[in-house]
Amino acid sequence: MRTIDVRTDRRTEFVDITADVRRAVREERLTDGAVVVYSPHTTAAVTVQENADPDVVHDLLLWLNGNIPKDVPGFRHAEGNSDAHLKSCLVGPSVLVPVAGGELVLGRWQGVYFCEFDGPRRREVKVQTIGNKL
């Protein structure tokens, strides 16, 4: 298992970690199988989304932040980050990406993103390869 270190600069942001995941697959010498990309944080998530147009990430964050604002009357969690827990629950803690011929099987416009909902922070993403290795 590999660990990717991610440093975030804003309270909510998506960080493209595709190159880091590709590097982990290469270093693990995985030829065919899959890679699990997992966030061990309850206020962050991982997703596969378009990485060609930055407006897509902007729009996703705009919707998430608009529909799940930070200060909702009635939230009781003492740390004041209930919105981040809810956002991470909706997006999910992990993705499974196929690997063929040593390469991630992603669509033309897809990338793997770490999703920060309670930053800025230093975070970790765990990467586990499964399958045939050289």
From TrEMBL:
This is YjbQ family protein. It comes from the Bacteria. InterPro entries: UPF0047_YjbQ-like, YjbQ-like_sf. It holds the Pfam family YjbQ. Belongs to the UPF0047 family.
